[in-house]
Amino acid sequence: MSEPTKMATVQRPVAVFLRCLLCVGALLGQFSAEAKEGKLVITGSSTMAPLVLEMGKRFESLHPGTRIDVQTGGSSRGIADAVNGLADIGMASRALQSQEGNLHGFVIAYDGITIILHDSNPIQELTDDQIKGIYSGIITNWKTVGGLDAPITVVNKAEGRSTLALFLHYFTLSNRDIKAHVVIGDNEQGIKTVAGNPHAIGYVSIGTARYDATYGVPIRLLPLRNIPATLETVREGTFPLSRPLTLVTKTEPTGLANTFIEFARSPATHDLILQHYFVPLAD
Amino acid sequence: MISSSNTISFHSQTDRLLLWGLRLLSLMAGGILLLVVAFLILESWPAFQDIGPARFFTDQDWYPTERLYLLTPMLWGTLWATLGSIVLAAPLGILSAIFCHYYAPPLLATWYRRLIELLAGIPSVVYGFWGLVVLVPVIGQLHPPGPSLLAGILVLFLMILPTIMLVAHASFAKVPLSYIHSAMALGLGRWAMIRNVLLPTARAGLFTGILLGIARALGETMAILMVCGNVVQTPSNLFDPIRTLTANIALEMAYALGDHRSALFVSGLLLMGMVVVFVVMAEGLQYRKLDDTAR
Description:
The structure holds 2 protein chains of 2 kinds. Chain A is an alpha/beta fold. Chain A is 41% helix and 20% strand.
C-alpha cells in the first residue's frame, strides 16, 4: 500500500525540476529574441558611463524597441571592446592615440582633471612643480608649501585608469615615481577619501568634483597655472588638464550606432552633459 | 527497506530517475569548481609563459604597465588582514556564543542571536562604506594617513564575527543533553563543564566556523578595497596601507590588457591556493584534535 504513495512523492521533485528547466529555457529564448531587436552595447570609461547611460535612456524613449546597454570598465576596456567587437561602441575619456588611428572617434563632450584638497586646508594654490614634488615624495609636509605642519596624504589612482595616464603625462611623471599613501579606483572613492582626511591631496574629474562640492562635500578644487578649475575654462580649452570624452567605433558607424552617436553629439543632450558637469561641444 | 540502495535503483523507475538527476546535479556542482580552476589556469597561462612563475615572487615591485609583477606584498597583505581579523573574531565569536547559550537569560539570548543574525546579513559594501567615511578618518587622526591594515582588520572582524558566532552557537546546541546532565551530576561548575565537556565536544563545529570566517575574510573584496588604501607594499605596522590580492583584481581587472590581465588571474590563482592551504590545514588540525579527545 505504501509503495505507490512513496512513488508519487518522489515523482513530484522530478516534475518540479523538469518544469524549472522549461522555465530557464523559455527565459533564454526570450533573451535571444530581445537581442535581435535594436540593441547597442556600449562599454568603457567610468567617467563617461553615467552620462551615456542617461543619453541611452533618452534615446530609448525616442526610439521605442531599442535598448542601450552601458557598462563601465575604463577607457582601455572601451577601446579593446570596440576593437574585439564585444561592444558596438567604446567610451574613452581621452583623445585617440596615434596607433589607434584606424578607429573612428567622436567627441561628445569635454572633461577636466582637477587637484582636490580638503576644504579646511588653507592652501589656495600650488604650482605644477609643487604638485609634482608632493606626488613624487620630495615634499611630504604641508609646511613646505606654506600650509599647516601636517604630513601630506597622497591619493593616487590605480593602474590603467585614463585619469592616471593623463595626470602622469601632464606632470611628466612615471607611476613608479609616485609615493602614494592611498590608491583609489573611481572618482567617488577619491572624493570620499579626501573629504575624510584634512591633509589629503588627490585628483579627479572636474565634473564629479564640482558636483560633489556644490552638494556640500568638503573638498576644494585647486586652480592650475592660475587658471581656475571650472566648466568655463574647460569649455574654452584653456584649462591645462582637460580631455575630450570620445565614443569609439571600429568601422564607420552605420544604422543604430550611427543614429546614437549623432544623437549624443546633438544639442538635444546638452542639458544631460551640463547635469553631469561636463562641457558640451561648442556648436 | 526503502533506504537500501537496491530498492532505489531497481524497483522504482522514478527513484532511478531522481538518483541520476541528483548524480548529475552533484557532478555539475563539483564540475563548476573544476571549471573555475581550469579557467584560472587557462587565463593565467600567458603570464606563466611570458613572465615566468618565479618573477611573481622576485620582481622589484608591482607596476604591471611597466612589466613588473611582484605579488608577494599583496600575499602578505591578504594574510595579515585575514589573520588579524580571525585573531579578534574567533575568541569573541566563540565566547559570545557561550554567553548566549549558557549564561544569558532566555529572552536576552534570543534577541542577541537575532541581532547577530541581522549583522550577518549586512552586505559587505555597507561595511566598506561605513569604514571609509567613519573608521578611516578616525584612524587618520590617530596615525595618518588612515586607510590601513588596521582598518581592514577591523572591518573584516565585524564581517566574520557573526559567521563564527552563529556556527559556534549551532554546534553548542548540538551537544547531547545527556553530556550536560552527566557533567552536572558529577558536580562540575558551569565554567568547568564548558571548558572540559562542551568545548571539546563542539570542537569540530567551532573549527568549521573559524574556517568559514577565514574563507570569507580571504575572499572579501569591496570592503577591503575601500578601507585599506591599496598601496602595494608589505606592511611593517598596523597603520601601513596595504593591498590584498582580491582588491588588486577588483581595482585593475577592468583596465587590464594582455600580460597585465593574465597577471591578475595569477593573483586569483594564488588566492585559490591560499584557500586550499587553509582548508587542508584546518581539516588536518580538526581531525588531530578530535583524535586526541577520543583517546
